[in-house]
Amino acid sequence: MIKLALSDDILMKVDKPARYIGNEVNAVVKEKSKVDVRFAMCFPDVYEIGMSHQGIQILYGMFNSFEDTWCERVYSPWVDLDRIMREENIPLFALESQEPVKDFDFLGITIQYEMCYTNILQVLDLAQIPLKASERGDGWDYPIVIGGGPCTYNPEPIADFFDMFYIGEGETHYRKLLDVYKACRKEAKSRQEFLYKASKVPGMYVPSMYDVQYKEDGTIASFTPVKEGVPATVLKEIVMDVSDCYYPTKTVVPYIKATQDRVVLEIQRGCIRGCRFCQAGQIYRPVRERDVEKLKQYAVELLKNTGYEEISLSSLSSSDYSQLPELIDFLIEECNKRHTNISLPSLRIDAFSLDVMSKVQDVKKSSLTFAPEAGSQRLRDVINKGLTEEVILKGAALAFEGGWTKVKLYFMLGLPTETEEDIRGIAELSNKIAATFFETVPKEKRVNGKVQIVTSTSFFIPKPFTPFQWAKQFTKEEFIEKAHQTKRAIASQLNQKSIKYNYHEADVSVLEGVFARGDRKVADVILKAYEKGCMYDSWSEYFDNNKWLESFDECGVDIGFYTTRERDLDEIFPWDFIDCGVTKAFLKREWQKALGETVTPNCRMQCQGCGAMRFGGGVCFEVKN
Amino acid sequence: MKLRIKFKKFGPVKFIGHLDVMRFFQKGLRRAEIDVAYSTGFSPHQIMSFASPLGVGLESNGEYFDVEILTPISSQDFMDKFNAVSVPWIQVTDVRLLPDKAGNAMASVAAAGYTISFRESRGFEDGWHQKFEAFMSQPQIMVTKATKKGTAEIDLKPAIYDYKVSEDSLYLLVNASSEGNIKPTLVMDAFAAYCGERLRENALMITREETYGSKVYKDGNVKYIPLAEFGEWME
After folding, report:
1. Chain A: nearest CA to B54, how far in angstroms?
2. Which residue of A has its CA nearest to B46?
3. In whole angstroms, what is the distance from residue A455 CA to residue A503 CA?
4. CA-to-CA distance for A211 and A456, rounded, in angstroms?
5. Is B139 on the interface with A (CB under 8 A)?
6. CA distance A481 to B190
7. Shortest Cα–Cα distance, B21 to chain A (Å)
8. Fold match, A262-360+580-625 / A362-504
9. B159-190 per-position pLDDT tens digit
């Protein structure tokens, strides 16, 4: 009989106790005496969010396919349980064994968005692991804390809290890392000796093995390894044969409804588009497609093994998957047989996608999504978003003819070179789409007589390894003024009654900007804010901007240095020691082309020599016609 | 064909609420590849009806739902297939074929039997066994029950169909119909008040042992019959 880490008394008191009981369908339970390595895999947010993450399911399955390793899951306890665990001194536990994380060999933390940084500290704190890696000693009292995921492409703001990072895709070198670990433990080597050896495994970054010197102006003077043999740059890890690598087909099915309550099928990695604001579009290069026959087989196995009533496709741009029609035809047939739904990711709106969508969803209820990102053609050229007004309006007309009446539009405010005219363009484009509805659909055919357009804007945040990594970010006040301008512009449109406008929080965007391009000095601020009680910062009801501002103040760290400062073309960035495949020279070229309002063709149209070809596969080596 | 499924739920999954249990079975029936009948439309759903929601924190040996299937299957096969893809703490224990005219599980519920025991050092003082007999021999047991519209004064006595006091536990058979459902905690709170005590937080451990339908005889007698017995075992 399984013994839970929390008493019935506690479980009866907290919200959604099923978050903490583990033992879900397909959860892996091993006999701990029969494994050498115990790995706690953590997503530092609440269970329902963490359980929706595909990456953990992949690594969880992969680790547990190793006979000598038992991988378990850990999530952030929600605030109610967090309080009780602190009061009663209950150590954070892993779900499967219900045993303390502190006794594990590794604590792996996936870092998917910047606003989870205080939750990383919460997890370490509740696990009773010293928050700073430097305080964890030279022995084996604590697990090796290892980070991974997109935010680790600039790990510096959180480098103090991690023993090491795995830069890139986890499938390639974890086996090797575990073997190094096992050998070190067997030979009674110290923690520091292990970390030194680990720093030589490809893709591994051990922050304590590097020294950072700063110039007087606060920028980086040098970033150098402190020990012989530690590589000066860390090349990201990448799976080149995505069709033949591990893929989980027996994923854990939560008892409670997760945010992503469906089978998710990853069809490809990377993106050919090269939008200049998009980090994922650069760091996951080159595009690698999974074999369609394999995907069909995974889909069937996953549906059978999980019992989910819905399947969804995951990739950065599903429309670019070359075998999409074949895959979708197969899924439609298979899903009909199984009474299962297909939920399509945002496909590029055209005749093909509308036809598919009308087959798999209720047109009257569903909405269509366009992401023009910028309001004017000029600015769309700057950001290299190859979507023209003509294409959008044509797609909208087709959709309205097909019976759709709801359209969602996504834009960004504060993009480099943005003018008031570009902002007005957001309102005008929204208006034109509404007008298209009235022109396309005759009065007698209009469902409820109207069209609903929801226009949303987020604030642009420059990210590392994008052509915009040199760009200045706007201040909170400027952001809010831009949102107000957008609102006024929409209100002055003829069809304003059909347009609903939403905009994001500006405070969070400023902070995210600091973390995105931050250096090691930012760690103190994160620690201070956590000590003041900041946690769950991505949840608006728990975000406390004042505490953050106080923390910056008390640490003497200037927000503007990281956000609004103009960066020199030759500045050494905190993340420059990482080689993501795409070269800095390419990014510089793209930044200059952006300022010149020149678009760059996508990878399939014409190779731009970004640098990712050196990985020796993917789209770079597709047979071109 | 309509089947009535009996299952038990215990251990860690007692913390899973009713809606999640329903979702668990929907997924479980798919994993087991049972040929369930679906509604039509864009979001097809399985045609099923659950008997009576079980509160979070309670265990049960007698939960039920009805489900419509298209391809005949033996009771044993159904159980084997489902239990193989379930978790050890939710297990199907009986499968019956319902006659065409049978009412659905939810409408059929008349009563439920509960075993109640006490967490260590949270039970009643010595001598509670006798006191319970005295409590039950009152002509009326008036309590205030929370309803959708506020509170109502009700008499518990006619809703308690049977009881049995044992050394360290208590068995209650109470009304569980949709109109007159009585939670066992309501009875225990009333008993505590009768003893001049107050139940400590989370003092009770409750297991629903069985869920019953009813059969009214010509002479006016009512007999409570386990829901499974309205259907037939399929060889």
Report:
1. 14
2. A339
3. 8
4. 43
5. no
6. 62
7. 8
8. yes
9. 999 999 999 999 999 999 988 899 999 999 99
